[in-house]
Amino acid sequence: MRRIFLLLVSVIFLAGMLYIGTPSTVLASGVTYYVDSVNGNDNNNGTSPAAAWRTLGKVNGSSFSPGDSILFKGGCFWSGSLIVPSSGNAANQIVFGSYGTGRAMIDGGNYARTVDISGKEYITVRDLEITNSHPNDWNTTLRCGIYADATSSGIAHNLIIDNCVIHNVDGVYSFYDIGNGITRFQNGAIYITYTGNNGYLSPDNHWDGITIQNCNIYDCSETGIQTNEGSAEVLIHPYNTNVVVRDTTISNNSSDGITLLFCDGPVVQNVLCYDAGRLTQDDSAICLVGIWAVASNDAVFRNCEVARTRYIQNDGTAFDLDWGEGGTFLHEYNYTHGNEGGFQDNCLFVGPGSPDFVKCVCRYNVSVDDGDYVIAHDVGDWDWEMYNNVFYRSSGSMGMGYLSQSVKYTNNIFYFQTSPNWGNCTYDNNCYYPIPANPNDAHAVTGDPKLVNPGVVGDGMSYAANYSIQAGSSCYNAGTLILDNGGKDFLGNAVSYGGAADIGAFELQSGPFGIPAMINDDNSGITYAGGYFYDSNSRGVGDYHDDVHASQTANTYFEYTFNGTGVDYITEKNSDQGNVDIYIDGVYQTTVNCYNAIRMAQQTVYSKTGMISGQHTIKGVKNSGQWLVLDALRIYRYAEDFSNGLNAWTQTTGTATVAVENGELSVASNGTGNVVIDNNSPNTADGIYTVTVKPDGYSRCGIALRYSSSTSYCVIAYNINNEWIWWNGSGQSGTVTTSGPSMAAGSTHILKVQYAGTTFTLWLDGSQFYNGTLSSMPVTAGKTGVINWNNAHTHFDNIRLE
User: Fold this and answer.
1) Which residue in 282, 283, 298, 292 sits closest to 257, CA to CA?
2) What is the pTM of this model?
3) Distance from C-alpha of 773 to C-alpha of 777, rounded to nearest angstrom
4) In sequence order, what are the residues at sequence separation of 6 or more whose Cβ sits closer than 8 angstroms to the Cβ of residue 318?
């Protein structure tokens, strides 16, 4: 993306057109002021709806104190500029919003900025509808819906934009200079800049705290959300801190969706970005991207959907890394589709380059019918980790677009119809289907991944689940171990479950123990009480199984009793929902907020894990809002992470010291053989046992299965020198293999054992090393535990039964 010199000009535009009211007497602190464009009067005191003010000029010409709220009547309309006249403080924001029914609407009229927050801080703008419509004057004049500028040196604090609808803001979308240095990088539906300190951001001169949330931005002839600085020089100034954009939709505009310049650690999450560049009237809006950062450090783009970004001359991708980036960029749990240029762009080489860049990590993303490239451009040698993603094309393929070996593809599904040019990138343990294996991938998987509904695409994050794997998939437990992998898949389920991660963005959810079981809202075991519940089917909004149960009656509730160690409450979030009180086993736990400005399906709003394995009951009671909605419950059958201490873990043989240290089970042997059992674990005859093991010193350690008595249980354990052994409680023992993998002292390993009757299959760190019959093992169902001996000191964690 050739965005260098034009990018940074951020002039203070059209100041002469703005009405700046002269502040009058300072008003009382903590007061709510009302403005009504129909029945108000500026001679009123403004402190009640019956004594409301009338005009923007009255608000602009007043002074307010921290804690004040200035509320415009919902359904009323104003034309002009709301110019924020006062700042809040660290204890109290000044709030500008709506009251009554619906949102108040402000159109900029002849003013460049509909809401102007210049030189002010600790400001909240919420619940307003904002436009700046000039349908016959596109791409000629800089205009903003909400404009914020730190005009003085120092740190500007805490700007919040919440639950606003911003549309038809008709400014400049051209990448090129249209005259007087004007480009699209100087305006936006929401535009935040810094002209203090001569326009130079620095550690002592920047914004700290920008939150944009629950907004809907559409039909604007410019960028949706943009940050910048006032200097026209090409400088790397990643200093704006605590920048968050979340739970927001941006659609059908003429330019980029989100452009974040000069930010340190910005987070963009739960954002929907549709049709960036779709409204442009000519080809001057080149180099479009859905969501991207420039001259920023450690950006996180998470749980976002980006679709149908236009390709005009360059880019056209869902995401982009551009010049001046530093640190580690993280793109995770995103769903992209139909972006004409592809999934991601790399322009780190442009302009001054990116001397402080460390790497980009892309994990657990789903790309469906994106255009040309997985990573566009191939200049330079930059570290890229691409793992556990799904790249699907219904025709043709995507180019890797990057020829450096420093780009590493691992555990990805490449579901292409033709083979691409794989280039010189590094490949390991990827699935290729239905195309032949990449010859450069030594551990390629080529069987059918058995995606749920390949080829199905639509708007809404829930569509990504069509690219999860099913039983019989070649990708199940076929992934290689990746440390520091975030611990969760696209849907938030634990990864590396069963000893090895699955290939792709979704960890297969099946089996009676250890893996979450989904309980749909129509399950006969769920009780609905306290009032009438609607059973709503074929909703088409992305719900689990496309249905929900919902009630409008106050204090109605759902209740479900289950056996397990944890539960998630999954629902929709929407503007007509409110709070739900959650109870576990009859005890109040918390109140969860199900409100969101736009509908979001399959949202996990409550999760509780680590409970004692056994019978539990979850209850959700309608507290507020129009609807109580249940989509599904996710039940965790058996899992132990020792977050609640030892619970019922008991030493049955030996004299070891058993304790919980740093959230792990510590078993320190004094020379004896020590079997430690969880008496709360289910009695299991056949299953899959997984545990994280860290031996310190002697490595002699392993797992205990089917413990029914001190003389009837199974042990699988590592001895020394690559020897794995078995024994049972009746005194019999033997060798499993003498050529297995080493479980080195001081290292962390994932041990997985699948057992059915006397057939055992063993994996260490994702690699299978044994499958065979151990005929002397008892087959009676029993409890689960761990073992070590001979002065070994071992830490165990993350135990799962499947």
Assistant:
1) 292
2) 0.68
3) 9
4) 273, 289, 290, 291, 306, 309, 334, 336, 339, 342, 343, 344, 367, 370
